[in-house]
């Protein structure tokens, strides 16, 4: 039975607007599992977020729990080639991207007016024109409140840039001259790292963080390598 992945939509050369959805896509592809995309399921998302999957009657929400589901149900060991120490580092890198760099990206995309117009404003095109300004204001306010509650929103833009650039430097150092995070073959954490590096490098946002990523040729090459392997249609675009 085909797996249904509930997602948003591709944007600015990215497989999906959400790095978490992109991560789930890569994990499914790494596992050799066929899936179909459904872009109409956000209102029914069990945790109020995407991605989530329907797999033979079972609903699994959150990209990390989707990974756990794939590992358990299909016996896929994404980290089979890694040592215990590498697995631990992979988990730490995964969570740096998801729990720290993610909020830098959100701040950069949504709080900067020019970047908002360049990127997230497109997400409101389906909203009736008369209601669009209010919808934009309301969602940006909700995101600003989330950023404040999480802590990233309490920093100045310059401080947010400084934090994001440390993440980029760490990723560039860890990858080094290797094809993937831990060597010649991708592991589970590569699905996450790729999703977030690609998001940072996307022209949807102009920022010091994007410039820092572009300045690291190994990160650009890593993004291109992963894109060619898992989304060749985007790589050719």
UniProtKB/TrEMBL annotation:
Domain spans labelled Thioredoxin-like fold: 19-115
Metaxin glutathione S-transferase domain span: 165-226
A Pfam entry, by short name: GST_N_4
GO molecular function, one term: transferase activity
Domain of life: Bacteria
The entry's keywords: Transferase
Family matches, as CDD domains: GST_C_Metaxin
Protein name: Glutathione S-transferase family protein
InterPro entries attached to this UniProt entry: FAX/IsoI-like, Glutathione-S-Trfase_C_sf, Glutathione_S-Trfase, Metaxin_GST, Mito_Protein_Transport_Metaxin, Thioredoxin-like_fold, Thioredoxin-like_sf
